[in-house]
Amino acid sequence: MGRRVSNDADSLVEAFRARTGRQPTGVWAAPGRVNLIGEHTDYNDGYVMPFALEQRVLIASAPRDDGSWSVTSLNTGSTETFSAADLEPGMAGWQAYVAGVVWALQEAAHSVAGADLVLNSDVPEGAGLSSSAALECAVLTALADLNELQIAGLERAKLARRSENVFVGAPTGLMDQAASTLCTAGHALFFDCRTDAAEQVLFDTTSAGLEILVLDTKTPHALVDSEYAARRASCEEAAALLGVPALRDITDLDAAVDQLPDPVIKRRVRHVVTENARVLEAVNVLRAGAIADLAPLLDASHESMRDDFEITVPQVDLAVQTARACGALGARMTGGGFGGCIIALVEVGKAEQIGRAIAESFTAAGYAPPAHFTAVPSAGAQRLQ
Ligand code: GLA
Fold this sequence. Notes:
Number of helices: 11
Bound molecules: alpha-D-galactopyranose
Radius of gyration: 21 Å
Number of strands: 12
């Protein structure tokens, strides 16, 4: 099983002291996420159901009096410093995720003083587990506290998303930042991306004798940005052609598909409409405490992403197929697609064996070795010290 990098608050306090020669005011954390079900539905005003991981970004921070922000990443081993004059959308590098949050707060008329920040993350990067949303939400939580800003959880998620959309330039929906901010331990978050209604749904896999295996296919996903934007554009085009505000509003799928001219766009719409319906079914399954009944929904979601939305890649399909062949109850890709992770619903004690079988199938196919761990539904962004 993949070993977790040590990422605790005390070690970060030590690192902060070593870097700045003083004590941090506090330590804050925000997690990565997996999405249980509801993919590419968020920007269609639809439904999602992610849960937060125990893997998270930690930040130790204290104010500075020269009005600049100095950020050290223990992951890259580098320190970047910027001031208010540097806060221009389009900034390059990992520091854009930090600077973007300062920018979004200031744009929303919050006053943000300079600060030293030291951060460390054990959320795998580029794996579709929302390492960037975790970073944005950790920075936001730290800066909100340091500056005594009264900002409710949902508004925090929206500010973090705005920094990602406008400052970093990635046209994502709200799911990742909502998950990192609003999730609670032991629950999945049922979130309505139109009304912002959020429900914490009990997700106690252990008492059902089950667990969620997360397998990172480690696929280089070069196409993710352009293909993500293309999927989003197709959905918007379809909604315009159908005369609805968003694909969420389609009530008769067959009639909608009949009206559309192009077979590709028909498939895109079918994915979004059926995926929204699967989230609603999944919520009912969890409310009834019947976790094993998620399995066919996970399988159907994967098939829809593979055949209709066309966002899977051969490594992801092989991982899902092998997981099922080796006894997983159900499995699907999670996240934006074109690589990244799959999740599989497995009986307790089977995760290691299934993870190893997938690794063997990757070796046989000539793919790079994957990594895996079991997911623990964890708390959203918070102050630790
Ligand atoms: C990425 C985006 C999210 C969402 C998913 C797909 O994670 O950041 O907003 O669209 O892809 O469900």
